[in-house]
Amino acid sequence: MLRYAIETKADVVVLLHADGQYAPEELPKLVEPFTSEAADMVQGSRMMEGRAALRGGMPRYKYIANRGLTAIENLAFGLRMAEYHSGYMLYARRALQEIPFEKLSNSFCFDQEKLIMAKVKGLKIVQRPIPTHYGDEISHLKPIRYGLHVLSLVWAYQRGHYHAL
Questions:
Q1: DSSP category for residue 137
Q2: Is the Cβ–Cβ distance between 97 and 38 less than 8 Å?
């Protein structure tokens, strides 16, 4: 899909996880930074407004894990992101042309890897707050395995893996 977006000269591509946690009606607010701030990527973040994610039903253990992993990632990558673990991402075509997404993993960490590559390529990342809604959907994410995978991304970044792509 991302390659198709480049080939058809799409200006902006939206990747929205289909688990019902992310509000599609927030899309106009998330597209705006591409014109006013010359953003290359925009992330809808559940973690920008204090404990709003908890009020939206995010399980406490996921909230704590998100905060902890994000702190580690911010230290490693030198960014000041509110989170790296959102499933609401928008990309300008120029970002997709710069990021070698076909060389990235086919896992739940694909979004984080694109953020890492944006950092490596000097692209501008903008975050906007979004509401959180956790219903009774079933998550297929294995939290311990996911956390270890995120830490392996940090280690790979530190070893220069993403700089070599």
A1: P
A2: no
For 72, counting Cβ atoms within 10 Å of its Cβ (0-12 exposed, 13-18 middle, 19+ buried), the class is middle
Tokens representing 145 are: 């395995």
Give how many domains the chain has, as a whole number: 1
Domain boundaries, position 75: 2-164
> Measured on CA atoms in the order 30, 20, 136, 70, is the torsion positive or negative?
negative
* CA gap 129, 19 in Å, rounded: 18
C-alpha–C-alpha distance, residues 60 and 66, integer Å: 10
Summarised one tens digit per residue, pLDDT across range 70-110 is: 999 999 999 999 999 999 999 999 999 999 999 999 888 99
Name which of 44, 40, 42 is nearest 123 in CA terms: 40
